[in-house]
Amino acid sequence: MTRESEPKSPEPDPDSGAGADPGAAPAPTPGRQRRPRPGRPSRLSRELIVSTALECDLTTLTMRELATRLGVSHSALYRWVPDRDGLLDLISQVVVDRILPPDSPTPGTWRAWLARLAWAMHDEFRAVPGYAAHVARPHRHNPDSFGRLRERVTAAFVTAGAEPAEADQSWYIFGLGVVQWLAATETDRGLGTARPRFDLFLDALLRGLPARTPVEHPHPGTHQ
User: 74 with 63: CB under 8 angstroms?
Assistant: First the structure.
């Protein structure tokens, strides 16, 4: 007796997917373009650019030097920041984020609130060589960063009881005073042999604020 041959398995239908390796990528459908693969994640970010720049001396830092430190091309960095001024604006946004207190001042805490803000400015500005000197120079300040700083400080003086116009003047005195003091001590302009003390400066500054319109003001050119 002859043994009947076993039936052969049917050939898999190439269009059905039967018999295909489950781990293999599906074949492209005729007439449909293959979906592009996601590109490589960007090597740059706002945080990386700023953190790298803050490790440098901003007085001499160039865009080309920063690109080299980041390990990217000059043109790649310009896709994130248009120029050196744009870089400094970006740094200012981060610095102001760091120094602004999370709480708001009250009538009983406004002076202590401003003191905390001033000390935060002292620590953050002094940690970045050249930054205080940059801020102290006449230039267009970033409204997104220093605008927020001005609003919070002005509101603190309003909370202290100052009229809006006096609160604005108090902001000028406070902001310019702190920034110019930090810039002067950073650049060592030969102010004297003793080391300038920020605590004494800040105490004297805050004791005179908020600004008040003098009751009597001498006429220009006259002497008391």
Answer: yes
93 backbone dihedrals φ, ψ, rounded to 5°: -60, -45
Q: Which of 179, 88, 98 has its CA nearest to residue 133? A: 179
Non-local CB neighbours of 34 within 8 Å, separated by 6+ positions:
28
Cα dihedral 130→134→137→141 (10° resolution) = -160
Summarize pLDDT for 107-143 with one digit per residue, the tens: 999 999 999 999 999 999 999 988 999 899 887 777 7
Q: Which helix (H) or strand (E) holds 215?
A: none
DSSP code for 209: -
CB of 55 within 8 A of CB of 104?
no
Residue 119's nearest CA partner among 101, 135, 138 is 101
d(CA 5, CA 11): 17
The beta strands (E) that lie in the chain are given as none
What residue type is 151 in one-letter code? E
Q: Alpha-carbon distance 27 to 132, whole Å?
A: 61
Rounded-to-integer distance, Cα 32 and Cα 19, Å: 23
Which residue's structure tokens are 């030969």? 190
Residue 106 — pLDDT band, cuts 50, 70, 90? very high
Q: Which residues contact 215 (CB under 8 A, 6 or more apart)?
A: none
